[in-house]
């Protein structure tokens, strides 16, 4: 029987949850934008840094996903973890825009090596040992673990920042490094599952047989998967959804402190509240998808976020519930979106396709972050939020008019009506 009990997860799932606990940015995220603004960066420059990151994600996603399929997903996750830790620790010494740009590049490469490989490892690990139908439930609850740990670490963010602005990044980098021994203990999955290390002892998990997934095989797989239904419009639609949330995230701190007069010392508790609500939402991601269906979950959650983006321009205090809505919607949509892509992707090349999807997400995010930064500099962050929400709602109408992003899928079969 598959994993169905939160209180008695299998050892594989427990290790996944433990890894998710180390992958939190809670120590520094509540003060991140304030930290950058106090380093004399403008909203436009912060947006440009986000675009630099997105650009390197675009360049690095497919090669990193191919590396994950080729050398093993644990090694890809390990490399990404180390790059992320180096990036976070680099903020301790960075002072110039060029230095920050270098850290964003390291950050982007770290995310690239983890994005496709992490979801591919989990899906195949469940398929090998439990049931792949549990993917959204386990992925969502892993996100919940991450959010709960984030909530705890965020409580100390303001205190650490007040003591020394560099301390949140020291703590955050060290926590990321704690993920290294956890990753070394993970078992192999998918086609690497029987290649010399299925016991999680950290030994070689690469495939020494003759059926390696070559780069010439990867290109047509990506082209076929992303240029045809059911993934074509789905990936573009969810890419726009995640892009507006990512772009809006940098405005939370200035809106809360400068427009709504929240003291900087309250940012930690505010972000803790975000994480608690998001943790609860993520925990029930599988149940939400089961109740609404993938089609209606994607439509209703994304539409709600788009509408909430516009309201604060007329009623600024609605920005607070908006922040909660967008954080929760983000954590619910991630497992639903990756689960849908996994259901329509074969095991061989899974990490490559997932990385290609992440590349599309980065490609859409690339222009939105600096453009929204320009709007915020010229007008206000609230106006920038309204522009992002309006853009998404208009594009959403176009999507559903031309081709529904989500077809009717029979759960666990990968069969779509499209």
TrEMBL record:
Keyword annotations: Membrane, Transmembrane, Transmembrane helix
InterPro entries for this protein: MFS, MFS_DHA3_Transporter, MFS_trans_sf
Coiled-coil ranges (or none): none
Transmembrane portions of the chain: 16-37, 43-66, 78-98, 167-186, 231-248, 268-286, 298-324, 348-368, 380-402
Keyword Translocase in annotation: no
Molecular function in Gene Ontology: transmembrane transporter activity
Record-linked Pfam families: MFS_1 (PF07690)
Name under which the protein is recorded: MFS transporter
Phylogenetic classification of the source organism: Archaea, Methanobacteriati, Methanobacteriota, Stenosarchaea group, Halobacteria
